[in-house]
Write the structure tokens for this entry.
Amino acid sequence: MAEGPARVDEVSAAFRTAMRLEETCAVRDDMGFDDIPGWDSVGHMNLITELESRFGITLDMDEIIGLSSVGAVRALVVRKRGGLEAGK
């Protein structure tokens, strides 16, 4: 299933909220821990909390550990939401 711009924007917004990033800070699928300011162990847990709250999902330990890029986060959110955009 194709993930449209709204999905990318919602995941980007989750990163911006969790990492306290400026709205102008780039958040792209190819970015990982080293590319996003604040994505350390505490930032990672903030991100998990934000994802679970924003998308109404629950992540298990293996899923949490496997989130090493924005693209991986987006793919997991889409899978957990059954391929549906948030709010639909």
About this structure: Helices lie at 5-19, 41-55, 61-65, 70-80.
